[in-house]
Amino acid sequence: MSNGLILVASDSIIGLHNERVCELLHLEPGDVAIGMPLAEFLANAGQRLGWDDARVKRVLDNHYMWMSQEDEMRLEHHYDDGTILRICCRPMPDGGAILTYDDVSEERAAQAEMTHLAYHDALTGLPNRRSFCEAVDRLLATTPQVGVLMLDLDRFKAVNDTLGHAVGDALLVQSAARLRETCRDNDLIFRLGGDELAILLQPKKRDDGDELGQRIVAAFSTPFMVDGHTINIGCSAGYAVSGADENSGVLMQKADLALYCAKAQGRNCAVRYETGMMEKAIARQRIEADLIRGLENGEFELHYQPLYLLPDQKLAGFEALIRWNHPERGRVAPLDFVPLAEENGMITKIGSWVLDEACRQAALWPGHLHVAVNISPVQMRSPGLVTEVLQALQTHGVEPNRLELELTETAMVEDGQQIAQTLQTLREIGVRIAMDDFGTGYSSLAHLRDFKLDRIKIDRSFINIEDDAVGALAVVRAVTSMANDLSIQTTAEGVETDEQLTRLIALGCNTAQGYFLGKPMDSATATAIVHEWSETNVVPMLRSSGSMNRFGLTEA
Ligand code: C2E
Ligand code: MG
Ligand code: MG
Questions:
Q1: Any idea which architecture 120-274 has in CATH?
Q2: How much is the average pLDDT of 125-144?
Q3: Nearest C-alpha to atom 20 of ligand 1 is from which residue?
Q4: Residue 548 confidence (pLDDT)
Q5: 227 Cβ neighbours under 8 A, 6+ residues apart
Q6: Atom of ligand 1 nearest to the CA of 354
Q7: Is the pLDDT of residue 549 over 50?
Q8: Distance, CA 444 to ligand 3 centroid (Å)?
Q9: Looking at the whole model, is its pTM more than 0.85?
Q10: Domain 301-536, CATH 3.30.310.250 — does that match?
């Protein structure tokens, strides 16, 4: 029997006991015996435990009280050596009682361990998100000002992906240690999950949190050494202080928004929450909802701008350019919503619609005309891109070589290796790749070598120029001749005058696009033009006369 047991008769004399009681209460022989009064037994036990007379009396009175009650009484007694005994007193109908003693120390320790695990992160030993939320609530209820610093490790994912999770884990442990060194005694450090950490502080002055944020950012600019690897990460921080009657949800949201701004500002910096950030975030959310609705309601439309082969000026194809027919705002230009859709990720859904719609349209045109689709850097990184391209081509029965994807240099450079892989797969399928707006990004010759391209589109800032812009002309000449050597087509963007066109022909540019040759037009017009052309065999010329071209096309 693992329980200690003492039977007390109605006259408070011990009627029975077992050996286990002596072990549990560290009794010596003679401390407990059949026929011994309860008072004497408790006095003996008290002596072993170092109780004074008053305490012994209190304990005895308690026993008398428990025995006089009808219900069973249970209590847990914590001994100085850490042992926890559960003592149970079950009164008997005749006035006596059964006392049982149970050692629950291990059970309680296991429970404490479970609680610790529920509130701490096993890897770093830091309190976790649950602790954080409860701590913020607790502090807000008792302290006039609470500061929250949200932290995010920069480039942590890359470390995990390239060096493996064991190195990632070790890096997190070192990061926690570095935070402990950087923070002050009263600052509480938490790991919220992944590479997200947070500091809870009680600011004494307004810029307490900003200073701490900056110190942390500075501390993380020193490289880490893990398993012989020198690892450069960084840290972004967002700080918010509680305002009047603020709840924990709002405070954490503000710190999160400040962190979001820190990341948007290029990471590796600390940003404090400023009034207006919340409103901006709400506006961003509204746009997101708007974009979702727009896609569901068919508010997006593609316009098509013709591209002409030079020097004979035959129609080569069209570039698809998205328009948003917003029910309240009217027609919205891509530059006013594409960056927002990139920010909130909606561009992948919109882009997938664009691919499908452009292929649907191209299927209505003669087979030698291509359609060019702009692909955002965000789409380029999305794993579904290749499947979406294949699906659009197959659904509408369009030959892959009639689809050209336009990417900016920025899109190609970010995450270079993965992008190069995607580009190669696309080219293997037979889809063509164009570099858009060449000259405005990195304009690195290495990109022309590393990424196999079918076309370079020279940005209109080099085309749409005054006659004496010698520098711009020199750029066009150099790019054209280099592209010729590499068997890459060139397109001049933004041709607005006859003179510009003549000059491009002289420079040996392959293709031209611009208001002078044709503005973007709706799909019905584009299709009408190509059919008129194939029926009459007359090359369609869409040249502007004044603001209107031959088809009366002026864009809304
Ligand atoms: P982009 O791909 O460089 O497209 C050319 C832009 O220049 C178009 O503006 C076109 O209307 C304009 N343009 C063409 N010829 C001339 C000219 O002679 N003079 C002047 N001043 N402008 C000319 P748009 O349609 O406003 O598109 C702007 C940008 O939005 C595009 O630049 C492209 O980067 C992006 N975009 C358009 N559609 C999409 C799309 O479906 N998906 C994505 N991700 N981006 C798109
Ligand atoms: Mg383009
Ligand atoms: Mg362009």
A1: 2-Layer Sandwich (3.30)
A2: 94
A3: 494
A4: 38
A5: 163, 166, 167, 170
A6: 41
A7: no
A8: 17
A9: no
A10: no
